[in-house]
Amino acid sequence: MRTTEQPIDSVLRPSDEVAEALAQGAPVVALESTIISHGLPQPRNLEVARELEGLVREAGAVPATIAVLDGVARIGLDKDGLERIATEPGLRKLGFRDLAVAAALGSSGATTVSATSFLAARAGIRVFATGGLGGVHREWTETQDESADLDTLSRTRITVVCAGVKSILDVPATLQRLETRGVGVAGFRTGEFPGFYLHTSGRPVDWRIETPEQAAEIMRAQDALDGPESALIVANPVPVDEQLDPALHDRVLAEALAQARQRGVTGQAITPFLLEYLVKGTDGASLEANLAAVRGNVRLAGRIAVAWSRGN
Fold first, then answer.
1. Which entry of 32, 146, 210, 276 is annotated as an active-site residue?
2. Which end of the chain is more exposed for a tag (fewer CB within 10 A), N or C?
3. Pair 289, 239: CB distance under 8 Å
């Protein structure tokens, strides 16, 4: 039971541009900030952040990069805010569970998929672009390690455009968990679930769509059915000519998993360890494939947002 009421703008504050777009029913695309703060080296991280916002604008939508600054969830960052996320040392990585604590303590941090999804939906944004989702970790039966992304997406009405789940994870188990939790998955011009760095994971998807307009129609059907507030995943593969070499990916990932076991790396440390190992072991090729996937997802999310806004 709430004992006090806090004004919404004290914990969640859209930028003027985003607020105006939402009020007018214009297309808006949410972008996460963890890729800026934790996923790329400086100064390239800031360059990529600006590039991704530019791609949203080219598609005819308004970008809303999301982060928490001094306890306030910012829905759309200005120049100073974007630079702060890109350069501030020791910036936290915030999932959904961290948001209330960060708000109460006046902390700052970059938002993960779970936090970005929640905040975007809370602000009234329906489309979100990211690289890859978190999911069920390998050796789940021993570690019980599963990303909070899945739980949040099972109760958040948002469309997430992504290149599947990170390939370091247990992809079949993650797809099963998404099905169990009622999260819809549709492949964009593909019948196979993307493999993040790779064009395909080799796993089939039940539904395939060909156009952004079809994605928007699914979103409208979700609302018309008025079922549980679950997400829609639009799985958009990285192009074949921009993917990481599959043989290189498999070899380096096997080495990374073996090193993690030998060093006893578990819990929250396992994902950054494996991703960093892949970057080093592929001489940066995995990072370039990741960025190619993100760019494609941002472009498609912009088109879906435009299609969604036209019918509402």
1. 32
2. N
3. no
Of residues 53, 166, 217, 255, which has the active-site annotation? 166
| Whether 60 contacts 27, CB under 8 Å | yes
Q: What is the pLDDT of residue 6?
A: 58
* Binding-site residues for substrate: 93, 113, 147-149
Give yes or no: 280 in active site. Answer: no
The predicted pLDDT at position 3 comes to 46
Give the model's pLDDT for residue 108.
98
pLDDT in tens, 6-18: 556 679 999 999 9
pLDDT of res. 139: 62
- Please give the annotated binding residues for Mn(2+), written as ranges: 145
Which residues are annotated as part of the binding site?
A: 93, 113, 145, 147-149
Q: What is the pLDDT of residue 167?
A: 83
The answer, as to whether pTM is greater than 0.70, is yes
